[in-house]
Amino acid sequence: MALEELKSRFKDQLQNAWSAFETSTVYLQIREKYDDLNPAAQKGVLGFLSVAIISVLIWIPYTFWASSEEQLSYFIENKELIREVLRVQKQLAASSDVPIAIDSGMLRTQVESQLQTVGLLPEQIQAVNIADFTEGIKIYATGVVAEGIRASVINLNVTQIVEIGYKLQQIDPSAKMIGMKVRASPERSHYYNVEYELATFRSEAPAEPPAGGNKKSNNG
């Protein structure tokens, strides 16, 4: 009964709003200009309005669908990273005897060394920098610090992309490939610019208590 009453009220409010709009100056001006058009132009206006309304009705659900597809695609692309981060988090929580991860400075040296073994020209190696990936993994797990290397290499063919990726993953058991961005080279067709992201994981250090926070009073 309440639902029927709400429907009736909504219908009445809609009719009242339309009646008020029909008596407004804007509507009267639009109506006057529409009546002055020839029949062909009137049909064109009605056709345009119909297409516009249908487009809006289609666009609204499409935006929700596109957003969900984007989120699903992001999850699929990062599922291996999610699995690895959760595994490390579980391992860190279960044991204090976790193997020490390779130092970022040493990892950088190893990455540079591996890039030299695949026959690249010096100008192809754009950058090999130490990077902090912790913020990027916080959406998957907390209490884990991710640090490593971001290496940018340009003008690679497909074989080189795979070979470099394989070599970087073999550097150290604690270093994991968490990202690889591939873009077509603007300089050479069928060649690509690649950014490799290699990271190690460790437990986040607990916050130190404030100075004097645990001191007991010696009064008395």
Can you identify the CATH superfamily of the domain at 99-203? Ribosomal protein S6/Translation elongation factor EF1B
> Helical content, roughly?
40-55%
- Strand tally, please? 4
Under CATH at level 1, the class of the domain at 99-203 stands as Alpha Beta
Supply the CATH architecture of the domain at 99-203.
2-Layer Sandwich
Terminal residue distance = 75 Å
List low-pLDDT spans.
none
Give the SSE string.
Answer: HHHHHEHEHEE
Indicate the radius of gyration in whole angstroms.
31 Å
Percent strand equals 15-25%
**Tell me about the biggest sheet?**
4 strands, antiparallel
Mean of pLDDT: 75
Structural class: alpha+beta
Report the principal-axis shape: elongated
Number of helices: 7
Lateral strand order in the biggest sheet: 1-2-4-3
CATH topology of the domain at 99-203: Alpha-Beta Plaits
Q: What does the model show?
A:
The protein has 220 residues and is an alpha+beta fold. It has a domain at 99-203: Ribosomal protein S6/Translation elongation factor EF1B (Alpha-Beta Plaits, 2-Layer Sandwich), CATH 3.30.70. Helices cover 53% and strands 19% of the residues. A four-stranded antiparallel sheet has the order 1-2-4-3. A hairpin with a 7-residue loop joins strand 3 and strand 4 (192-203). It is elongated, with a radius of gyration of 31 Å.
Which key terms come to mind for this protein?
alpha+beta, Alpha-Beta Plaits, 220 residues, elongated
SSE topology:
Elements: H1 2-22, H2 25-36, H3 39-77, H4 79-94, H5 104-116, E1 125-132, H6 134-137, E2 144-156, H7 158-169, E3 176-184, E4 192-203
Antiparallel strand pairs: 1-2, 2-4, 3-4
